[in-house]
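Summary for the steering committee. One of the milestones for this cycle was to obtain a three-dimensional model of the protein with beta-D-glucopyranose bound, which we needed before selecting residues for the alanine scan. The sequence and ligand used are listed below.
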Amino acid sequence: MKNIVRSIALIICCMIVMTSCTPAKQGGQTQGKNEDKIRIGMSFDSFIIERWQRDRDVFVSTAKEYGAEVNVQNASGDVEEQKKQIEYLIAKEMDVIVIICADSEELKDSVEKAKDAGIRVIAYDRLIKDSPVDLYISFDNAMVGTMMGEAFVNENLAGGKVLMLGGPLSDNNVEVLEAAFIEVMEKNNIRILDTVHAEGWRAEVAAEYVYNNPRLIESADAIMCGNDNLASQVVHALAENRLAGNKAVVGQDADLEACQRIVEGTQIMTVYKPVDKLARRAAEYAVMMAKGEEIPLEEAIIIENGRYEIPYVALEPVSVTKENINEVIINSGFHLKEDVYLNVPEQMP
Ligand code: BGC
């Protein structure tokens, strides 16, 4: 793994507490560069996966509370388009640009250009390799992989066989997550029969795999899916072969349908990543950066992204199963009880 965590808690001079970043009055002027409104550019890979709309909404509303405006761009999964959109945001003289990269290897030049123009850059959720970003904020993606692996161990699958249907390796999160997952498999003598990486996170790739590999599916005890959207298609394909519920399936994101599958018994777990917290924190940091304030980095560690040492804030994910879904997903307000138990109302607590 290139981006090896150097793991030194950052104790730097920048101990300014978040309270110094109090919201500006609605519609009020802020202390941005030119005395005008703070402007944040946000460049998304795409909105196909359920979570990203939530990331956007919370980020935009938090930024607004602080008197900033957000220019949201959607590259629809096309990294060349994303490069153009970042150029546009640079030309529009944003104070800060927040990037959810479509490809972890491809945006270093775009980040350099933004930095040359005096714009601060935040890599959001996905690392941008070899680039001088000011901050990388995400979840602990290794922990996501460990939790997926442990879910299989808890199902007594030690010594068993699994398939790994993951996201694309162009997303650095995939590499990190899978390395941690594989470690749990090795420790517990679980064999990985085959591995697939769905380009562009396209869920059809996972479904096609299930249709085209009946023998492997038959002999696997479990299927690790890179996220809940892939799991959705996998469970659908399994159901067509009357296998849904017979293979232990895991995913991540706590998409509504995944939570429904958990209470119905066709998926054993998902990893809940509190994206509201991530988006809020990122928006607060973006506003502080725009004001020229140092952000409070006591919680950050320093990682190496190939070429630069950058601060990384990693939020904790939570493993969700039938046992704790009410507490983690419903009580937190992430999804409504009626929605999660839509297809099995008799089980509703
Ligand atoms: C994110 C996942 C998401 C996936 C597809 C990954 O980088 O960490 O939460 O499901 O991208 O958008």
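Key point for the committee: The longest strand covers residues 38-44.
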